[in-house]
Amino acid sequence: MSIEVKVPQLPESVADATLVSWHKAPGDTVQRDETLVDLETDKVVLEVPAPVSGVIREILIGDGVTVTSGELLARIDAGEAAEVPVAAVEQADQAPAAVADDGGPADERNAAKLSPAVRRLLDEHDIDPAQIRGSGKGGRILKADVLSFLEQTAHLDDAAEEPSAGVLPDVPGALPPDMPPASPRQDERVPMSRLRARIAERMVEAQQTSAMLTTFNEIDMSKVIDLRKKYKEAFTEKHGVGLGFMSFFVKAVVEALGRFPVVNASVENNEIVYHNYFDIGIAVSSKRGLIVPVVRDADLLGFAGIEGTIRDYAQKARDGTISMEELIGGTFTITNGGVFGSMLSTPILNPPQSAILGMHNIQQRAMVVDGEVVARPIMYVALTYDHRIIDGREAVQFLVAVKESLEDPGRLLLQI
User: Fold this and answer.
1) Fewer C-beta within 10 Å: the chain N or C terminus?
2) Residue 182's pLDDT is what?
3) Catalytic residue check, 77
């Protein structure tokens, strides 16, 4: 019996998706719920599983094609392996399958499952795929991997042909007669992924539709660091999750948002929408770009709940399994450039939100405390806000409230 594989129902906010890559080819056996193909939307990569166990009979849509909900992708012969028609095998040249799951270099068993473009490049240059480590999902060899390999090989060949450093030309300033001309400089053009294009679109949108302004402050992290050091092991032992800085910041932000509701609001046409809940977006870096999963009802979560949610999101971002629902609906965002070494930055709003807090790295700095110069672990923080609805006074006081909570963490526990 032939079973159809279709594009799943996409969220209302997503019109279409791009078919990224097939994990199987016509003639391959599949197990129920095994991932067949990846579809990329503006926000996430969706994995389409096999509805039944069987054999791939035909693949109807190849890589890079835009698809919509309900569109037919492939057909599977359910049950035992069946003979696959020649036409279906030919379609394998239009929709490649995945390489070995171990993430290692492709071997002879995988050579037949390379994409047409990759296979053609390998054949033209007589390259053994085992020489190349793929950067695609599951170790898939991409066209960019082959081009990079060719470029590296060319550089090695050029280096081998160059004369010895100790050999000088007879004429001062002249090149040795056997020195090859310099290789022409070449540009590599790579299409933006849908996620990167969407990030670019939203960044420009934020610049054009809001009146962004940034205010700064500095936070003495001594007490947070001491508290974390004192209870880190006990916290992990009890809750099964590490105690990081982000939970302190989320708690401090929620406390400050309660005092300054307009910072948690958004603009909709000519109205200010005040949100009576605290869904805090946490910017997470992934291989595909920056994504912002949302910690729902952060005011109702304890430190362990916040840390556990962030840990799960980070893992999903690395695995590419985060869902669309987990990326929408935030009311305020926190981004941490400090993990990459940033000292100071001006974060850009995440529309339609009206404010975003930027964390930075912690450095020992000279501070005057009780008339004496002492070293303190200081973090610079930045609040970018939409000046259309948030006045400077409210923005500054909000950031001061965050500072006060973190410099005296007991406030977070006593809610004062």
Assistant:
1) N
2) 56
3) no
Contacts of 302 (CB under 8 A, 6+ apart): none
- Choosing from 107, 123, 226, 391, the catalytic residue is 391
Give 68-117 pLDDT, tens digit per residue.
888 999 999 987 544 444 444 344 444 443 333 344 443 443 444 566 56
**In the predicted model, is pLDDT for residue 396 greater than 60?**
yes
Length of the chain: 416
Neighbours of 73 (CB within 10 A): 22
To the question of domain 194-414 being in CATH 3.30.559.10, the answer is yes
- DSSP states of 9-33: PPPTT---EEEEEES--TT-EE-TT
In the chain, which residues fall in CATH 2.40.50.100? 2-144
Where in the chain do CATH 3.30.559.10 domains reside? 194-414
Task: Report pLDDT for 380.
Answer: 97
Average pLDDT over residues 11-20: 76
Give per-residue pLDDT as tens, 224-265. Answer: 999 999 999 999 999 999 999 999 999 999 999 999 999 999
158 in active site: no
Q: Which CATH architecture has domain 2-144?
A: Beta Barrel (2.40)
Helices and strands (DSSP H and E) totals, the chain? 10, 19
Phi/psi class of residue 148: alpha, beta or left (left: φ > 0; alpha: ψ in -120 to 50)? alpha
Are 351 and 205 in contact by the 8 Å Cβ rule? The answer is: yes
Q: Please provide the DSSP assignment of 150-204 as one string.
A: HHHHHHHHHHHHSPPTT---SSTTPPPTTPPPPPPP-----PPPHHHHHHHHHHH
What mean pLDDT is reported for the chain?
80
CB 7 within 8 A of CB 70: yes
- On whether the CB atoms of residues 295 and 305 are closer than 8 A, the answer is no
Over residues 287-308, the mean pLDDT reads 90
- Catalytic annotation, pick one of 275, 299, 387, 408: 387
352 preceded by a cis bond (ω within 30 of 0): yes
Burial 115-147 (b: 16+ CB within 10 A, else e): beebbebbeeeebebeebebebbebbbbbebbe
